[in-house]
Every structure is written in structure tokens, then in C-alpha cells.
Amino acid sequence: MRLRDRGNHAAWSEFLQIYEPVIYRLARRRQLQDADAREIVQEVLLRVAAAIDRFDPDGTGSFRGWLSQTTRRVAVDRFRRLSDTARPLGGETNVLADVVDGIEIPLETEFDLEHRRQLFQCAAEHVRPMVSATTWDAFWQTAVGDHPARAVAQDLGLSEGAVYVARCRVLKRLREFIEQREAE
């Protein structure tokens, strides 16, 4: 809802920080070239800016669902234009059908997964400067790197209990950051 205020630069900046990489990665996964993926991102952002005033969470559903469908429509439109102008060597193929079959159902799930990844990345960038390097390393190696706490403790010169405490403290801050963003 904060995006409806075109002058709310903080809301738009946060929106771009979270969703621009999500849309780009989804487009690239569909074997689009960098330039085509960036065009899809720009088109989605333009459509969001143009339609945000009409977005109704009660009638349309969740914002992520709406954004996911907007991304899908833009991608399909882009593939239609590509298939109309570019004919592959070696014969006719239905590029649009191949793409739509591949993204029809799983795009929303994939969109949500990419959204969660991007939120985690933003949260990590926010939380990392708030904790010591040792605390961050203990968290990262155990939670992300999936290394055993005992090995991390030896590597960092900590007790195994200190590694678990560090991991829990960082996870708590990450969760708080993500919950705050999702509540907004």
C-alpha cells in the first residue's frame, strides 16, 4: 500500500531491492538473454507503477500473487513477440507453447521461493554489520554451510555452546527483519 504514494522513495527503494532481482532471476531461468530479462524486469516495474493504485488485496489476493501473475503475463507477452519475429533455424517450433507449458503452474511457487531468497539476502545484509565477525561466521558455517557445530567451534576457537548461541541470535534477528518486512 505504501507504493501508492509515488513520493515514498523508501517504499519504492525497498520494493526494488527485494523484487527486481527476483523478477530478473525468474526471467533468466527461462533461458532469456540478459537484455531480454532486463526488459521483462522493466516492463513489470512499469506495469506495477501504472496499476498499483488499482491493486485491491481483498479482490486481487496477495501482492506477491498479483506481482507473480504480472510477471508471468509480461514474460508470455515477451515470448509472443520473440516467437513472432524470430524463427529458429531448422524449422518451426512453438516457442510460446514450450515456455507457457514450463511456467504455467510452477511460476507462483518459484516466485515465492525467489522472494524468500531475496528477503533472506536483504536480511543478511542488514543483520551482518550488527554482529561480530565471529558470530556471523558461526551462524553462516552452521546454518548456511551446514557444517557441524563441533567443527565450527574448533575452527573459530569457540565452545560448541557458543556456536549454537551465535546461530540462534543471528537467526532471531533475521526472522525479526523478515517478519517486519512481510508485515509492511
List keywords for this structure.
single chain, about 180 residues, Arc Repressor Mutant, subunit A, 2 domains, 9 helices
Structure description:
It is a single chain. By secondary structure, the protein is mainly α. The chain has two domains: 2-121, no CATH class; 131-183, Arc Repressor Mutant, subunit A. The protein has helices at 9-29, 34-51, 57-60, 63-85, 95-103, 106-127, 133-144, 149-156, 160-183. Helix 1 packs across helix 2 (34-51), helix 7 (133-144) packs antiparallel against helix 8 and helix 7 packs across helix 9. Mean pLDDT is 78; it is low at 86-105. InterPro entries: RNA_pol_sigma-70-like (IPR039425), RNA_pol_sigma-70_dom (IPR014284), RNA_pol_sigma70_r2 (IPR007627), RNA_pol_sigma_r2 (IPR013325). Keywords: DNA-binding, Sigma factor, Transcription, Transcription regulation. Residues 18-83 form the RNA polymerase sigma-70 region domain. One of its GO terms (molecular function) is sigma factor activity. It comes from Stieleria neptunia.
Q: Write the element-wise H/E pattern from the N-terminal end onward.
A: HHHHHHHHH
Spatial gap, N to C terminus: 9 Å
The number of distinct β-strands equals 0
How many DSSP helices? 9
Strand content: under 5%
Determine the structural class based on helices, strands and strand pairing.
Answer: mainly alpha
- Coarse morphology: elongated
Mean pLDDT: 78
Q: What count of structural domains?
A: 2
Helical content (DSSP H or I, runs of 4+):
over 70%
Largest sheet: none
User: How many whole angstroms does the radius of gyration measure?
Assistant: 21 Å
Low-confidence stretches: 86-105
Domain RNA polymerase sigma-70 region: 18-83
Keywords: DNA-binding, Sigma factor, Transcription, Transcription regulation
GO molecular function: DNA binding; sigma factor activity
Protein name: ECF RNA polymerase sigma factor SigE
